[in-house]
Design goal:
Elements lengths: L1 H11 L30 H6 L1 H5 L17 H4 L4 E3 L3 E3 L11 H15 L13 H25 L8 E4 L27 H5 L1 H14 L6 E4 L9 H12 L7 E4 L5 H14 L5 E4 L4 H5 L13 H9 L5 E4 L1 E2 L4 E5 L19
Helix pairs in contact: 5-6, 8-9
């Protein structure tokens, strides 16, 4: 009962806190480094038992919290202004996506998907039709993104705009509950948008960020957690049928059922695409607080870091509010030690 009351209190008020950058110099995970001396822990040691591998050396590495704005060229942190229009700040040197490595990664990834070898990118039980539709759609998006990059030569501050889903049981009664990628748009009926809830707001923000050049693609993440509706498919429908977004500008992640799974699964896409960072966008409800540096859920053992360590024994990566004008846009990197050398600990991630 005490847990339920506390959870209701947290849900009813915003408690997310974006902590200020410490004034003094430091060399720990808050600044993308692993504190302490000795050999770096191996990727296997980190991913098998993160607390055991780093806890004695650097307690700050047991949290996602870091200050990427302190070293933008290492973290690939770019601020994004949300006002009447969306405007991204300048891309730090060496961070524009796609670079040649990113293009090569997307080419290899498209071939994997076309060969029905998605690995952990589609590690959930979907019906055959839904699985094949997601595979085909994502392969088309990658091929189109590669073609656009080769044609224009453009690069972007972030590799992808990541949009977490939102689910309720009532979504299973909407006209798009059984809609699949590749099918015609459905006009909907009264009550559908209300049932989709924050999905529409998140998609609208993602579309604006995409058109502003924040990233070349949108990754929508969410499975059939609360009804038969696949949240990622619903977001694709909203983006491509009601907003100025092409279907081949959207990547589908149709498996996640909770926020920490949204981040893990989207992070897997960033890694597979050869990217260093993505831009997570959500609405002004509970989730934007839940993604902050301090949320209050730590008191209940329900923060993203705590759930990740409990479920998988590793930290997903690092994220930090990058938006101004709203508090719902976040730099996100699957590389917790983003300031370490990229030939070493700086390229270690458990999101493979």
């Amino acid at each position: 009962m005490r847990f339920c009351v506390a959870a209701l209190l947290l849900a009813g008020c915003g408690v997310g806190i974006r902590t200020p950058v410490p004034a003094g110099p430091a060399s720990d995970a808050r600044f993308g480094l692993l504190a302490g001396r000795g050999p770096d822990p191996s990727p296997r040691a980190l991913c098998d038992d993160w607390p055991e591998a780093v806890g004695d050396r650097d307690s700050t590495a047991l949290s996602h919290v870091s200050y990427p704005e302190s070293s933008p060229s290492l973290s690939c942190f770019t601020p994004v202004e949300h006002g009447e229009t969306v405007r991204a700040g300048p891309t730090p040197p060496g961070c524009g996506y796609p670079d040649p490595r990113g293009l090569g990664a997307m080419i290899s990834l498209a071939a994997r998907l076309e060969g029905d070898r998605p690995g952990s990118l589609l590690a959930c039980s979907l019906g055959r039709a839904a699985r094949l539709a997601a595979l085909a759609h994502n392969a088309r998006t990658l091929r189109a993104t590669i073609a656009r990059a080769r044609r224009s030569g453009a690069t972007y501050p972030y590799a992808a705009i990541v949009v977490p889903g939102y689910g309720t049981a009532s979504q299973g009664e909407t006209t798009i509950a059984d809609w699949l990628p590749g099918r015609r748009c459905r006009p909907g009926r009264p009550g559908d948008m209300e049932a989709l809830g924050p999905i529409a707001d998140r998609a609208t923000r993602a579309a604006a960020a995409l058109r502003a050049g924040v990233a070349p693609v949108v990754v929508v993440t969410g499975g059939p957690a609360h009804s038969r509706l696949v949240e990622a498919f619903a977001m694709l429908h909203v983006l491509s049928c009601f907003l100025p977004v092409r279907p081949d500008e959207v990547i589908l992640e149709p498996c996640a059922e909770h926020t920490h799974e949204n981040l893990r699964n989207a992070g897997r896409w960033l890694v597979a695409m050869g990217a260093r960072a993505g831009y997570v966008i959500t609405d002004d409800g509970l989730q934007d607080d839940y993604l902050q540096d301090s949320t209050g859920w730590e008191w209940l053992g329900g923060s993203i870091d705590q759930r990740s360590l409990r479920d998988w024994r590793f930290i997903i990566g690092s994220w930090r509010q990058a938006s101004t004008g709203i508090s719902a846009g976040f730099w996100f990197s699957p590389y917790r030690f983003w300031a370490e050398p990229r030939r070493g600990l700086g390229s270690v991630t458990c999101l493979r």
